[in-house]
Write a structure and sequence with these properties.
This is Purine nucleoside phosphorylase. InterPro entries: Cu_polyphenol_OxRdtase (IPR003730), Cu_polyphenol_OxRdtase_sf (IPR038371), Cytotoxic_necrot_fac-like_cat (IPR011324). Keywords: Copper, Hydrolase, Metal-binding, Transferase, Zinc. Belongs to the purine nucleoside phosphorylase YfiH/LACC1 family. It holds the Pfam family Cu-oxidase_4. By secondary structure, the chain is an alpha+beta fold. The protein has a single domain, classed as CNF1/YfiH-like putative cysteine hydrolases (4-Layer Sandwich), CATH 3.60.140.10. The chain has six helices and 13 strands. A six-stranded mixed beta sheet has the order 4-5-8-7-9-12. It has a five-stranded mixed beta sheet with strand order 1-2-13-6-3. A two-stranded antiparallel ribbon has the order 10-11. The protein is globular. It binds zinc ion.
């Protein structure tokens, strides 16, 4: 069985993302990777963070964020201490984790683990949550890839860290979660050119005919160039789908999370 996104419990706060379809993985005793993406509803936060905001850096009441994170753990049926967060800075630093997080989250834009039971979390509200899973080697990664992440190469950095843990790119299955679509991501021409130097497929036209970026198209190109065997896109656009947080649409708002883990 390929790793399929887990049905995230019966509660209203999360929903499963579309399952990846691809060739069956060879028989393996590695723990099974699971993936998912949260949505807005079902949480405790008040407007403009309503309701299932998981971001602790956006001005929301810390008690509400803590309650929402505890709920996420319950939905995933893991200990709250198993959730691993990062302080995302639009860079390329990758942190390999092998135990529960103690102290403040590290400044990084990618988390990698081969340790079952640790839930890697990436916070987003238009940027792309990239969830990587190698079911053969038993290695997973959660990557925060916005425009700067694509330009600077955060995904190749994460793949390299996975390889150091024994993962082969051909065995990696990538899920690109909900993000701003190309039609809604107008940028200055110079910015588009910068990103297109790394991934030309990212250069698209907005719905008003101006230069724009389709980050998921660019990331798909980057992943395929890196030899990744399977790339699946969640088609949802954060700007258009009001069930998701969007910074571009709403300004001050919450963050949903992409999560990936190896079943303990
Ligand atoms: Zn859109």
């Amino acid at each position: 069985m390929p790793p399929t996104p887990r049905r995230l419990g019966a509660g209203p706060c999360t929903e499963a993302v579309p399952a990846g379809r691809g060739p069956a993985a060879p028989p393996t005793r590695s723990p099974r990777p699971r993936r998912g993406v949260t949505v807005r509803r079902g949480g405790r936060s008040s407007s403009p963070y309503d309701a299932f905001n998981l971001g602790g850096h956006v001005g929301d009441d810390p008690d509400d964020v803590a309650a929402n994170r505890a709920r996420l753990a319950r939905e995933l049926r893991v200990d709250p201490a198993a959730l691993v967060w990062m302080d995302q800075v639009h860079g390329t630093d990758v942190v390999v984790v092998d135990g529960p997080q103690t102290g403040p989250p590290p400044q990084a834009d990618a988390l990698v683990t081969a340790t079952p039971g640790l839930v890697l979390c990436v916070l987003v509200a238009d940027c792309v949550p990239v969830l990587l899973a190698d079911p053969v080697a038993g290695v997973v990664a959660a990557v925060h890839a916005g425009r700067e992440g694509v330009r600077q190469g955060v995904v190749p950095a994460a793949l390299a860290a996975m390889a150091r843990l024994g993962s082969r790119p051909g065995d990696v299955q990538a899920l690109l979660g909900p993000a701003v679509c190309g039609a809604d991501y107008e940028v200055p021409r110079a910015m588009q050119v910068q990103v297109a130097r790394v991934a030309k497929d990212a250069a698209v036209t907005s719905r008003t005919g101006t230069p724009a970026l389709d980050l998921r198209a660019g990331l798909t190109q980057v992943l395929r160039a890196g030899g990744v065997g399977q790339v699946v896109q969640d088609p949802r656009c954060t700007v258009e789908d009001r069930r998701l947080f969007s910074h571009r649409r709403d300004g001050v708002t919450g963050r949903q999370a992409g999560v990936v883990w190896l079943e303990a």
